[in-house]
Amino acid sequence: MSHHKLDTLYLMRLLVAIVRCGSFAAAAAQLGITPSKASKDLRHLEQSLGNTLLSRTTRRVQLTDAGELAYRQADQMIALHEQLLDGLQRRRSALCGELRITAPDLWGEVVLTPVLLRFRADHPEVRIIADFSNTPADLLRDNLHVAFRSTELGSQPYLARPIAVDDLVLCASADYLDRHPPLSEPQDLQQHPLITRCQEYSRHERWTLLAQGREILLEVAGELAFSSKKAIHQAMRQGLGIARLPRYLVAAELAEGVVREVLPDYRPKGTGFYALYTQRRAESALVGHFLDYVIEALTPS
């Protein structure tokens, strides 16, 4: 193969991928090429620039000073190319391209999937790749456009856009409540079997309830404790006690009346759902339009 046919932008992407993934193999997998091709093409880039960019002595690849410069420039070239495509795309009104998304598994499955499917139906030119899992994502390394997370925002190096509030509800099955003494204040929870979310095999949990704007902190312990919200939901449905669950999981059953809200005047405090994305994605018409779409879909009318 004659070397001048290698596309500069591809070589820039290759360099960036190797640096972010930390290995030729992982970068090759991300770009859909073999590790030996990745290695050969990077050598070609080094020859054409007349500089060694990576020192391959250690287990991890390390940038040389020339490599550091090339990496920063490569990143900017890719960003400029994306902006060019984006600008052209804005002129043709159809959105196209690829959206790579991550979201927590249950929320992604139950809440986000229907929105993604509608978005795709409205924009058939857009490819969607969605990974639902609770492991923290690295937007740069995994080359993601958007990570949806329910999080108390720390000092992440990402831009965050509020998407929705993850509403929680204290609830029990209707037949459980018919068979047990009624509850009128939070203290009454101590007289009932609770189903809690376990972390590191502890059945103890802190529940924060809101009443007229003030917070009530409860230390609770479950007779049953599961790490999975689906399991907690099943146990609650079978009448085994009172649970704290995301409202989206029980909305249909609350409407039917088979599950009832407990202590409706003391609402569990929910967390915010945010879309996290990098500064570079902030420029993207596709990402911006997609987030507007999700927010509109999830905002109660």
Automatic annotation (TrEMBL):
One of its GO terms (molecular function) is DNA-binding transcription factor activity. It comes from the Bacteria. Residues 7-64 form the HTH lysR-type domain. One of its GO terms (biological process) is DNA-templated transcription. Residues 1-28 form the signal peptide. Belongs to the LysR transcriptional regulatory family. PANTHER family: HTH-TYPE TRANSCRIPTIONAL ACTIVATOR TTDR-RELATED, HTH-TYPE TRANSCRIPTIONAL REGULATOR. This is HTH lysR-type domain-containing protein.
